[in-house]
Here is the input.
Amino acid sequence: MHNIGFDVAHLLAGSMLCLSFVLLYQDRMTAVLNVFALQAIALSLSVAWQAYIQEAPHLLITAVIAVVMKGFVIPAALHRIVRRLGIHREIEKVIAAGPVMLIGLGLVALSILLVLPVGQSVSLLAREDLAFALAVILLGLLMMITRYNAVTQIVGFMSLENGLVLAATGAKGMPLVVEISVAFSVLIAFIVFGIFVFRIRERFDTVDVGALDQFRGERRDQT
Here is the structure.
């Protein structure tokens, strides 16, 4: 049973990491939102499994929050924003998909190198889950950096937060209040991002960050 617990935990955490790479590779808005929903479902399954092997029923609340909010509610809301604003289906990238994937592999290697020596005092399962979580966090940050579109940057931010939740639930004894506060902080951030995107669209008729940088440069030249 101990080995099965390890294998399932690694399978679920590894699936989140693989979905992070799929997010980096996607160049269509609908696919990005759908893959993020799948990652949130994988997160909820991972948290539920941690609740079982740690004998921590309170983690099931975190799993339910993850699957309901980030697996269904937030992706549906983002789909609605995309349709309402008429955002282009194709996503412009700062860097091409190939180099981004190579950078992502480098970040995964960096996560392993950083976590494994530091986590010698914790259990093997927690240490390896922490390596997965850090890799998901860094890939979410990479997605935010390598996308022009504000909506995909929101998805990158929430993918980053998925990694934080994975890291938190992998550590035994994590208070429920911390997990709930993280979930609600993400919800608040999503609301703020949504308002921000609408205001950008109303003011500049685009959510392309590159176009906004160009506009800022033109304003600077005029002054």
Residues 2-215 form one domain.
